[in-house]
Amino acid sequence: MIPQKLTLSNFMCYRQATELDFADIHLACLTGHNGHGKSALLDATTWALWGKARASSSDELVSTGERDMSVQFEFSLDDVQYRVLRSRELSGKRGKGYLELQTAAGDAWTPLTGPTMRETQDQINRLLRMDYDTFINSAFLVQGRADEFTVKAPAERKQVLSDILGLALYDRYAEAAKITASEHKRAQEVAEGMIGVLQEDLSNRAECETDLGLAEGHADSVAVMIEAKQQDIDRLEVAEKRLIEQRAELVAVQQGMEDLEKQERRLHLDVLQSQAWAEDAQAILDRKDEITEGYEALAEARQVVSDHADKLAELRPLTEEKSRLDAAIVAKGHDYDLEHQATFAGLQQAFTRATYLVEQEEARVTRFEKFTGTCPICEQELPEDKRQGMLAEARDELSRLATDSALAERRIAEWQNVRRPADAELAPEETAALAVLLEQIDALGYDHAKAQEAKERRQQLVVFEEEWISLGKAETTIAEVNRTTAEAEERRAEIAQKLQAEREKAFALDDKIAKVGRHIVLPLAAAKLAMTALRNQEREALDDIATLQERLKRLDEQQVKLEQAQAQLTEATENHTLYTELQTAFGRNGIQALLIDEAIPELEAEANALLGRMTEGRMSVQLETQRDNKSGTVRETLDILIADEYGPRSYEMFSGGEAFRINFAIRIALSKLLARRAGAQLRTLIIDEGFGSQDTAGRESLVQAINSVSDDFARVLVVTHIEELKDAFPVRIDVCKTPGGSQITVN
Q1: Which of 159, 281, 509, 670 is in Cβ range 3.0-4.6 Å of 474 for a Cys bridge?
Q2: Mapping DSSP to helix (H, G, I), strand (E, B) and coil, where does residue 94 land?
Q3: Count of alpha carbons within 13 angstroms of residue 492, beta-carbon side
Q4: 499 vs 42, 254, 264, CA distance in Å?
Q5: Which one, of 418, 254, 431, lies nearest residue 343 by Cα?
């Protein structure tokens, strides 16, 4: 990974949009006073890539007074250009973050951003093949944390070295091998279980084949018995058919007998009915005079009813007109009464009003008569002459009102004595029309009592009408009855002869059927019952055969499955063994341990070469990967042993300047190892401060050491505020804080 360009806005002390282009920089010194923003540029780089910096919270990185910040970092990796854009917005209690990953495609950028920030961050980590902790433990010497790697526990140092070497890939391989081995182990167990079940099923094959032979033999013997029994049934069914035909003939004879008996009974009833009709007809003839007289009286009564019905038809419209005229006369009388009452009420109201006005005016006259100088109305002084004039006017008005009141009272008395006019005066036209109408009604001569009496007599005599008709048919009925009675008796004699012949025939057939049936019906029923039992035996035998054949077919399939399961077991066992061995090989004690053991001498040599150059050969480091336990066993570790011309000492016993040179040598060695690793080279070295702990000779040694290793990196940034070191490097990046925020100048 090689930085190309850094752009930041509202990030810590960089308020305005600020850009730092690394394109022409190989080895540079990043300088400026303390607190002006040197380390903030490095924080922007790590925050853009991993969302982490020296601050504990991303919100602390936002410039004071601002609500958002953004960092854009461009870098190259394996000749491919990438760009990371990360921003933060202070909103609510938690704030909002945004992260994008892009790759260059000509003059444009193609997005590689995942659906979420977490997925995008994982993609950046996979691309760089490192996380934030690996970066600050190797290529980035963070201000005040140069000993980040040295002071870690041995296991943590070994993990950092593992991350630098990219051994996490082997962890993934080991995990994948473990999962695959578990899958093959489960497949092995499944196959073993299936083999046990299949072998248990196949152990019953011989017994199944024996049962099939017995079932087939039994089915053959039952088939022979069924064939013999079917012959007996066929013979008996032929005889049964003849018996059925005879029974049908007997039924036909019996049905004919029933028909003849019905005819005989019907003829007998007809004779009895005819005789009854003859007797009724004779009874009618015996009452001939009575019936004739009654029928003539009925005709007379009907004529009277008819005449009155005609008169009633003429009377109905006259009656309706009379009702209309009566209603009109009553309505005019009612209208007169309403008008009379309204007039009387008006007179009473006028009299009441006049009486009221008289009383009011009398009171007014009285007030003027009692006048003492002040107007009783306006309560002001009033002259005597004017009072006399007003009093005279009031008396005149009182006289006029009294006259009106007397006139109203007289008119009321007169109106009370008015007589109500007669109907002829109120409705003269309707009264005259009603008189004419009454004369017409009287002229019709309709008598309701006579009409009702005629209807009642007609109702009493109506029985003679039917008897009159019967009288006309009586003589003919008697002659017809005598003729039909003779014919019926003759037909009854013929039917009696036929009925006797059919009875003799039916008796003979019934006797024959009874004799033959005893030798056919019961034997045939027994034969069919036996056949049903044989068919059941045959069906059961065939079912057993089908079941056994299906079982043998399933056992054949089970045999094939057994062979397949055995092959699967062999394959699963071999694969489980293989992937278990791969899991061990890819694990921490396998290839990873070998690669670390292979890298340790190189790391140790690089650190000692640089440390020897800075200390004139006085100091050295030794890395040990194994340590003896008290139990006598050996365990994996990564211990750092430091020695000078006086021998080995613990890290804490060295001075600050010596400790920094030790850390610097080890970290440079780690960075060179990281820069040369395959897959994702980190060809960048960043050293943030650390010179303050060195004397003049130590600083010169550090500068020489940095220059000596610079060719191993594409970008080397050295951060310092020491004035004498500003010109020690070919490029100087000056950082200066202004009221508008920190600014960058490249010299």
Answers
A1: 281
A2: coil
A3: 14
A4: 137, 10, 10
A5: 418
Nearest alpha carbon to residue 49 among 718, 684, 674, 741: 684
What own/partner pairs with CB < 8 Å and gap ≥ 24 does 87-90 have?
Answer: 88/58, 88/59, 88/61, 88/62, 90/59, 90/62
Do 43 and 71 form a contact (C-beta atoms < 8 A)?
A: no
What one-character-per-residue DSSP string does 9-52 give? ESBTTB-S-EEEE-TT-SEEEEE--TTSSHHHHHHHHHHHHHS-
Query: How many angstroms separate the CA atoms of 147 and 151, rounded?
Result: 6
What are the structural domain ranges in the chain?
A: 309-461
Query: How far apart are the C-alpha atoms of 41 and 50, rounded to whole Å?
Result: 14
Strands (E), 388-458: none
The number of helices, as runs of H, and strands, as runs of E, in the chain is 16, 15
Instruction: Give the neighbor-by-neighbor strand order of the sheet with 647-649.
Output: 620-628, 634-644, 647-649
Fill in the amino acid letter for 368. F
Q: 358, 431, 369: which is closest to 399 by C-alpha?
A: 358
How far apart are the C-alpha atoms of 361 and 364, rounded to whole Å? 5
Residue 725's CB: how many other CB atoms inside 10 A?
18
The residue type of 239 is A
Q: Which residue is associated with the tokens 């990873």?
A: 592
Element (H, E) at 516: helix 463-517
Using DSSP's 3-state secondary structure scheme, residue 721 falls into coil
The two beta strands, 731-738 and 27-31, are parallel
Q: Which residue has the tokens 């010169």?
A: 700
Residue 262, exposed/middle/buried by CB under 10 A (0-12, 13-18, 19+)?
Answer: exposed
Task: Tell the residue number behind the tokens 């990974």, with chain if given.
Answer: 1
Specify the pTM: 0.45
Structure tokens at 66: 């601002």
680 contacts 127 by C-beta, under 8 angstroms? yes
Instruction: Answer for the pair 729, 718: CB distance below 8 angstroms, yes or no.
Output: yes
Give the pLDDT score at 700: 77
DSSP 8-state symbol, 115: S
Name the stretches of the chain with pLDDT < 70.
137, 141-148, 164, 166, 310, 312, 315, 371-382, 418, 446, 471, 475, 515-518, 674-682, 689-695, 698
Contact 730, 41 (CB under 8 A): no
Tokens of 44: 């922007």
Tokens of 205: 């094959």
What is the H or E stretch that residue 609 is in? helix 591-615
Cβ(329)–Cβ(426) under 8 Å? yes
Q: Say how many CA atoms lie within 13 Å of 32 toward its Cβ.
A: 21
Q: How many CA atoms lie within 13 A of 59 on its CB side?
A: 9
Counting beta carbons within 10 angstroms of the beta carbon of residue 134, is it exposed (0 to 12), middle (13 to 18) or buried (19 or more)?
buried
Coil, strand, or helix at residue 447?
A: coil
pLDDT for 678: 47
Buried b (16+ CB within 10 A) or exposed e, 665-677: bbbbbbbbbbbeb
Buried b (16+ CB within 10 A) or exposed e, 500-526: eebeeebeebeeebeeeeeebeebbee
Number of Cα atoms under 13 Å in the Cβ half of residue 402: 8
Q: Which amino acid would we find at residue 80?
A: V
The dihedral sign for the CA sequence 581, 584, 589, 591: positive
